[in-house]
Design a protein that fits this description.
The structure is a homodimer. Chain A is an alpha+beta fold. The first copy, chain A, has eleven helices and 16 strands. Chain A has helices spanning 9-22, 31-42, 70-75, 82-94, 112-121, 142-145, 171-185, 198-204, 209-226, 230-238, 338-344; strands at residues 4-6, 48-50, 60-68, 100-103, 125-129, 153-156, 162-167, 188-197, 206-207, 241-256, 259-268, 276-282, 284-290, 293-297, 301-306, 323-329. In chain A, strand 12 (276-282) and strand 13 (284-290) form a beta hairpin. In chain A, helix 1 (9-22) crosses helix 9 (209-226) and helix 2 packs parallel to helix 5. The two termini of chain A are 29 Å apart. The mean pLDDT of chain A is 93. Chain A binds chain B through residues 89, 93, 154, 159-169, 173, 176-177, 179-181, 183-185, and chain B through 89, 93, 154, 159-169, 173, 176-177, 179-181, 183-185.
Chain lengths: 367, 367
């Protein structure tokens, strides 16, 4: 639990590694965001996180992040103040300055955007987020699931265009309208969404996820420094389940409706020799099967890590022959309620007939 | 010049006829808007127009109108309060109620929207507009040409979605972003744009165009009642130039980039027997040529009227064999300045090498 913590350049390095792991294959690359945050520190600005418990009930909290296809984010580099302009627009709309920012998703590049914008605006970022991982669509946040509309929301591009979503019929309409604007803007933009009270953030945010990303990143860095196996360290600190060590033997991956969808075939190695595995993906990893039987599904986290370094292997850099460790992490209870499963459970990803069977924490029985 | 005038159901009937004529082939059909305005009168609401001279310099004036392809407006009938919701959103944004509304284009269906919204909101509509006719794109208004940005602007659909354009790089970006949103909304929506002062409206609006539409419509109705030729009456009251009476002998019309583009071939009849004519079109009529030589171009108005009834024949109802009168009306001086010609002159419609030669009012020499 953080009250108010100043992040160092090393902390930001570790958070970027941890955020990539929590991206479960998606969420975009935190690399450029990390460099930008470190640059803010060099300018003398502060990157701060604040624990949910330390937040005033009446605090005005805004979610900021990049919106658009991650692949475009790599080629169309941000001007760097898109999210800040979106934030300023919402502040103007409410006639009130934000007291803190919050990430919609801790997984991948969008973990870095609030830190960057917070440094620019001089306000802290809540230690928590709306997914506890990455998901492909904007309505898949606990903010939205537990009743906070994403609007009023603002979207800003690098050219100076700023659009406000004042009212939407529902969250799917917000996703549709905002997506069409972002495409017209060139495919990537900054957003400020889901303005909420500190009280609501305490109720609906997945807590302590920056601390979690920081710990995960430090575990990887530490293991690599000490030449010990990072997978064991990661599983130990997260009560994660080591599902399989394997070699990627086949890979189907194509674009459908703007998403990378496909399947990875695995052949167990070491202690897992003789087993086969399959991972289905839609930007993020959706299910893990062993010998043809599904063992883990969304919203639980399926991590595909480099077997030697422990770094995340994201959907776009998967390739034949890679040696990986597949690790399962139980999702936060906020993602396992009936309301949440309707939005982020297997059926929400079109996996008809697949039941969500919660993965137990390692050591709690199960698996 | 109107100070404040209450419109009757007959006035609205006449304005719809006149607005269709000023649409120069485009602008959409005023029919549904007319019925809605007449319905407001039956409910006891008032439809009022106010002269530019009677407007306070500090009045808060907002332009309202439908946005989207006219052809969709026919099939996807408005819920009826789209523009009102867009207006209310801008009022909320400014923390100020509008004192009057103004039409972006008097030509076609968008002449009726401000009258409808004004009746709903209980405020008058300025006797003037931003085009003095119809043009296909949103940036082609005198408001925009003389320096008033279209934003902040709001767009509302029939489902309850409302989007605000807070800042745009330029008017073309507004057109692009708003267009993409309207397409996502289903192709048609209501807009509130170009919030301006009474002072600016007096400087930049094409004046007295509701009075003009009313007079044109009454001329048509009067001629039909008295069984006299409506074309002569129209030309007389507008100092219009009767360019040709003709039969449509060929018609090329196709969709390109969301616009109806094409060409009409004419064979002169009566006093014009032996002459040929050509009209190029892009939603609206762009040029009129006689025997291969261009005589009239945008921004001057080229009207294609039913030779017997004087009613406008719009681009979508043109057909082979129709007997028409082609009439030229000089455009307002505000459309003939170098700034205006850069946006609504021949070159702006891709007519390379075509010079704008102003049509003189009938009786002033020329033609």
């Amino acid at each position: 639990m953080t009250t108010l913590r100043e992040l160092t350049s090393d902390d930001i390095e570790a958070i970027a590694i941890g955020a990539a792991i929590l991206g479960t294959g998606g969420g975009g690359n935190p690399y450029i965001g990390k460099l930008r945050c470190q640059q803010e520190l060099k300018k003398g600005n502060r990157v701060q996180i604040i624990g949910l418990d330390a937040l005033d009930d009446d605090a005005f909290v805004v979610s900021v992040g990049g919106i658009g296809a991650p692949v475009i984010g790599i080629e169309k580099i941000e001007q760097g103040e898109e999210c800040l302009r979106a934030l300023r627009t919402l502040e103007e709309f409410y006639g009130r300055k934000a007291d803190a920012l919050i990430a919609a998703e801790i997984g991948g590049g969008n973990a870095m955007e609030p830190l960057l914008t917070g440094a620019q605006a001089g306000i802290p970022v809540v230690d928590g987020d709306g997914m506890g991982r990455a998901f492909p669509e904007m309505q898949m946040t606990t903010f939205s699931i537990y009743g906070k509309s994403s609007v009023p929301a603002a979207i800003a591009d690098e050219k100076g265009n700023v659009v406000i979503y004042r009212e939407v019929l529902n969250e799917l309409w917000f996703e549709r309208l905002a997506r069409s604007t972002v495409i017209a803007m060139g495919g990537a933009a900054g957003s400020a969404t889901a303005p909420m009270s500190g009280r609501y953030a305490k109720r609906a945010a997945v807590p302590d996820t920056y601390t979690q990303a920081l710990g995960l990143g430090n575990a990887v860095l530490d293991a690599n420094r000490r030449h010990v196996n990072p997978i064991d360290l990661i599983c130990a600190r997260e009560q994660g389940v080591r599902l399989m060590d394997a070699k990627i033997t086949d890979l189907k991956r194509h674009l459908r409706g703007g998403f990378a969808v496909g399947e990875i075939q695995l052949q167990g190695v070491g202690a897992y020799a003789g087993e086969t595995g399959t991972i289905a993906l839609q930007n993020e990893f959706l299910t893990f099967s062993r010998n043809g039987t599904i063992e883990v599904t969304v919203p639980d986290l399926i991590l595909v890590l480099d077997l030697d370094t422990g770094h995340a292997i994201t959907t776009e850099i998967l390739r034949f022959g890679q040696r990986v460790a597949v690790v399962g992490l139980p999702s936060h209870p906020l993602l396992r309620t009936p309301e949440a499963l309707a939005v982020v459970g297997p059926a929400a990803f079109g996996l008809e007939g697949v039941q969500f069977t919660p993965l137990a924490r390692a050591g709690d029985g199960n698996v």
